[in-house]
C-alpha cells in the first residue's frame, strides 16, 4: 500500500467516513473570482472574519510555508433516528448542533492522523496544520479537489453515497502525496434546495446571500432580525437544514456510522419557555460541549422569542 493510501485508510480507521488528498496548489481562478465578488457584494453580511486572510483562504502555502498536500476528511453526521416533534412550543436545532462540538472532536483525530503521517513517511521534521472550520481555508473547494464530493447548488459539499450532512477537516502538510481526482458528478437540472430555502438566500444563478440565511441569522448575527426575515425563521432556533433535507442526495444517504461523537437527541427541540428562563450558569452547564455555547445565551434567547412569535402566529 502506498503512503497516500495508508494515510486515507488510517483516517477511516480513526472514524472518518471519507478521506482524500488534494495538491496544495492555490484554488482555481474561478473560485478566487467567486470569493472576490461574494465579498464585494456584501454576501458575507456581518461576518467580518470572511474579509480577512483572503490570501490564506485560497492558498495553503500562506497557512503553512512549503505546503505540498492537503489531506481532506469528512465525518457523516446524518442522525440515525428522527426525533419526533414534541407538542407545545419548541425550537428546532440544526442536526450538526445535536452533537458534541465537532471542532475539538475532529481536530483531536487530525492530530493523531498527523502523527501517523510523520511515522509512515519517516519524516520527524514534517510540518503540518490541522484545520476545522475556523482556519481560513476554502474547505469545500479542497474537499472537492480531493475527490470527497462535488459542490451543489446549495453550496454544500455532497458525496454521492454519504450525502451532505458532512463535517469537513484538513491537514495541510509539506510532504508530497498522490492527489486524488475530483468526482465527475453534479446537480444536473435539479433545483430542489433553491425552492426549499425559506428566505431566498440561494439563487439559480449560484449566489449565496448570508444576509438572508437562517443559519447566519440564528448563529452568527447578534442584532435585531428584520420582521420579514424573522417570520421566515419559523421554529428554527439554531441553524437551518432545509437546503440539505430537500436534496435527493440526503434522502438516499447512509446514516452516521461513527458512534464515538456524542449525540444528544434531547437537543433537537428546545422548549422555548425553558430557554427564556435560562440563566448564564444553566446555559453554560447544559451546552458546555456544544457549538450552541459559542453563539451565547443572548442570541439563543432572541431566537426563542422569534420562534415563539412565529408559533403563536403573530409577528
Ligand atoms: C462562513 C461559513 C458559513 C456562513 C456562510 C455560508 C456560505 N455558503 O459561505 C453561514 C453562517 C451562513 C454558514 C452556514 C452553514 N454552514 Co458553514 N461555514 C462557513 C465557513 C467558515 C466558510 C465558508 C466560506 O468560505 N464561504 C465563502 C463562500 C464564497 O463560499 P461558498 O458559498 O461555499 O462558495 C465557494 C465554493 O463553494 C464555490 N462555489 C459555490 N457556488 C459556486 C458557483 C459558481 C458559479 C462558482 C464558480 C463557484 C461556486 O466557490 C466559492 C469559493 O470561492 C466554512 C468553513 C471553511 N473554513 O470553509 C463553514 C462550512 C462551509 N459550514 C458548514 C456547515 C455544516 C454549515 C451549515 C449546514 C450549518 C447549519 N445547518 O446551519 C449551514 C449551510 C449553509 C449553506 N447552504 O452553505 C460546513 C459544510 C460542510 C459541507 N458538507 O459542505 C463547513 C465546511 C464547516 C465544516 N468544517 O464542516 N456557514
Ligand atoms: S441554511 Fe436555510 S436559509 Fe440558509 S441557504 Fe440553506 S435553506 Fe436557505
Ligand atoms: S437539491 Fe438538487 S440542486 Fe440542490 S444540491 Fe441537491 S441535487 Fe443539487
Q: What would you say this structure looks like, in words?
A:
The protein has 315 residues and is α+β, with helices and mostly antiparallel strands. The protein has 2 domains: 3-78 and 100-173, no CATH class; 192-312, no CATH class. It contains 14 helices and 9 strands. The strands form 3 sheets. It has a 4-stranded antiparallel sheet with strand order 1-2-7-4, with helices on both faces. A 3-stranded mixed sheet has the order 8-3-9. It is globular. The N and C termini lie far apart (61 Å). The model has no long low-confidence stretch (mean pLDDT 96). Residues 30-31, 34-35, 38, 47, 50, 94, 96, 132-133, 137-141, 151, 154-157, 164, 166-168, 206, 208, 210, 213, 215-216, 219-220, 239-241, 243 line the site of cobalamin. Residues 154, 197-199, 201-202, 213-215, 240, 242-243 line the site of one iron/sulfur cluster.
Amino acid at each position: 500500500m502506498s503512503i497516500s493510501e495508508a494515510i486515507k485508510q488510517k483516517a477511516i480507521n480513526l472514524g472518518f467516513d471519507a478521506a482524500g488528498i488534494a495538491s496544495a496548489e492555490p484554488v482555481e481562478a474561478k473560485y478566487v473570482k467567486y470569493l472576490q465578488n461574494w465579498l464585494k457584494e456584501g454576501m458575507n453580511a456581518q461576518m467580518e472574519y470572511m474579509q480577512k486572510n483572503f490570501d490564506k483562504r485560497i492558498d495553503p502555502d500562506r497557512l503553512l510555508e512549503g505546503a505540498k498536500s492537503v489531506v481532506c476528511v469528512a465525518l457523516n453526521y446524518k442522525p440515525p433516528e428522527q426525533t419526533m416533534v414534541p407538542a407545545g412550543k419548541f425550537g428546532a436545532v440544526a442536526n450538526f448542533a445535536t452533537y458534541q462540538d465537532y471542532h475539538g472532536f475532529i481536530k483531536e483525530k487530525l492530530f493523531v492522523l498527523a502523527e501517523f503521517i510523520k511515522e509512515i513517511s519517516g519524516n520527524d521534521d514534517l510540518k503540518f496544520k490541522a484545520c476545522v472550520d475556523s482556519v481560513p481555508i476554502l474547505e469545500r473547494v479542497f474537499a472537492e479537489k480531493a475527490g470527497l464530493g462535488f459542490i451543489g447548488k446549495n453550496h454544500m459539499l455532497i458525496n454521492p453515497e454519504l450525502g451532505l450532512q458532512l463535517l469537513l477537516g484538513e491537514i495541510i502538510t509539506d510532504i508530497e502525496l498522490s492527489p486524488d481526482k475530483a468526482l465527475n458528478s453534479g446537480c444536473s437540472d435539479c433545483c430542489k434546495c433553491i425552492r426549499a430555502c425559506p428566505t431566498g438566500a440561494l439563487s439559480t444563478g449560484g449566489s449565496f446571500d448570508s444576509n438572508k440565511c437562517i443559519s447566519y441569522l440564528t448563529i452568527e448575527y447578534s442584532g435585531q432580525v428584520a420582521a420579514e426575515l424573522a417570520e421566515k425563521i419559523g421554529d428554527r432556533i439554531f441553524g437551518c437544514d432545509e437546503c440539505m433535507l430537500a436534496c435527493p442526495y440526503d434522502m438516499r444517504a447512509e446514516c452516521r456510522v461513527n458512534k464515538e461523537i456524542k449525540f444528544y437527541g434531547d437537543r433537537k427541540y428546545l422548549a422555548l419557555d425553558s430557554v427564556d428562563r435560562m440563566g448564564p450558569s444553566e446555559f453554560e452547564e447544559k451546552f458546555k460541549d456544544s457549538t450552541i455555547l459559542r453563539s451565547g445565551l443572548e442570541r439563543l434567547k432572541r431566537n426563542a422569542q422569534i420562534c415563539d412569535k412565529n408559533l403563536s402566529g403573530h409577528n
